[in-house]
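FORM 7B - TANDEM STRUCTURE REPORT

SECTION 1: FIRST PROTEIN
SEQUENCE AND TOKENS:
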Amino acid sequence: MSDIKIDSKLIQDIAKKVDKEGNNNKVVDGNEVSIFVDRLEAQGVSNAQQIIDSYNVNQLYYENIFTKKGTKSNDTPENAIIASINNKSVLNSNTKTRNDVNMIIDGVKKAVDPWMFWCGTDEKKLKQMVNSINKDNVVELLNTKYEEDSNNTMIQDIIGDTSGDFQDELLKHILEALIQAADAKQIDISDIVVSTEKGQYTVGAGVKDLEFGSDAIDSDNFEKIVNAIKNRINNSLALVTDENKAEEDPQAAMMLLARQADAAGDQNGYLNGDEIGKFKAACNQIGISVNGMIETINEKTNKDVELSDQEEFLEKLFDSKSNIIATANQQRVLEHTNATIAKAIEEGDEETLNKYFNKETLTKDNVISIIKDYENIGTDLYDAFSDDEAREYAKVIITALYTKAENENIDVADIVRPSGEEFVTPEGEDALDSEYANEVINDLKSKIKEEIGD
């Protein structure tokens, strides 16, 4: 885009005046846009409409740019024009984010500094400052240097000066702001932190040096959890705004942009309709030519030439049957589920295992996926739990597998058959007994996978 000869403040003043003369709803929209463009042209801005058109097509890219630290709606004239037409995006909110961040940092320092108030931590002020943290400013806040002359962090100050329920309340607020920030950008963090049914948060399976399933709010865990989420968001945003990063892993960049496009559209798990144009434009902005790849795919398909992994991946993004966007999210959840079950069996955690190994949760539709990596689950269950408990878990697994086989018209009479509410082997032995359960489970799983390729 060509240089604009007027500054951001004048552009914002023109936008405010146009809006005030129009519907006065704090954004230039509807008929106001053409008036806005005309007035900018009168000031020598010849490409205002081009900038607006570029944003309308490519909102994903621009909103990712504005989310990155240091980029605000008044940084450049182009940014000021874009922010003027969309006050619902993160663009406008970033005009004041820097001031908000500095205010929060200064407020936290004063609240925890005993020399400022002569009476220790000012809990009222500290709570007020922490409650000012939200999904729009939390990443920039955590990216901003807290102490210029030391490595001390805001999190360390909060943890060091609070305790008990009050500390938990503050930390939970910060964590939830981070989770919301990741959700808003469709960045998957389910391997870092997990929300429980009781509204608590536990450490995910993908956090190095932290115990999986432990309390994420615990003071010993919290800063590592926060940094892991912050870094995931920073790295993901870099991936979809930086050509060099995107070139390193174009498939990951396309997946994140596809998730964002689908989330902004009909959320059906693949790209269609207007989502396609936004996805292509955002990819093109970081040097990924989707149209070029599609041409190559068509040429290879016509010549019956094998597609590359990246080309196959792109095809799936547009294929309603692949449902690849939703599948990628489900895979992360499945990995967490498997890790949770493995830990519960290892520790003999009956309460946790009861949530997964019951007939409502473990069904014919998910049983293969959940137990596919367990070769000795029957044996492990009997080793970790009482015979009665292990028998009930084995029964739930075998029931789901047998139902799956029936549903797929697979004959498993040579492995197991029902006997009332129990199961027996072809020889009439108790299939749920510790001597037979593991073999029956593995044989059922193998035969089903062999027959349907699941």
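SECTION 2: SECOND PROTEIN
SEQUENCE AND TOKENS:
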Amino acid sequence: MGILNNIFSKIFPNAQAAVGNVAGAMKDKFDNITGNVKEATNNPTQNQQNGENKAPLSEVDVMSILDNLAKKYPESLNWKTSIVDLLKLLGIDNSLDARKKLAQELNYTGNTDDTASMNTWLIKEVMKKIAEKGGNVTHLFS
């Protein structure tokens, strides 16, 4: 398992407990979509009338999940802007070697010896990936 997947596994199981069974809801949504693909292409107007074009599931509030974890953590962490602290909060190896592996996994094109630039890029990229996975992190970038 890659480091990014490890991050997801630490965040999203907690989110499922907070907002209900997200995985089950996603499976149901996926089954609805795949089960109705033929019908949708044959008669899209009828499908809209039947309510099959439902609104997307609400996003997981990653900010609250991580804030709650941070409240229980024995030291103060700046996880919103520090990849080192985010990884520490999640109990994931935050060593330079691990961060270089994460940078490689996320296709970082900069110099990994410039750790300040790499770390800044990593926290933004990880938050972007969390958002793509269904996590609401938009207020971190305002």
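SECTION 3: OBSERVATIONS ON SECOND PROTEIN
The two ends are 32 Å apart (CA to CA).
Residues 115-132 form the longest helix (18 residues).

SECTION 4: SIGNATURE
Preparer initials: ____
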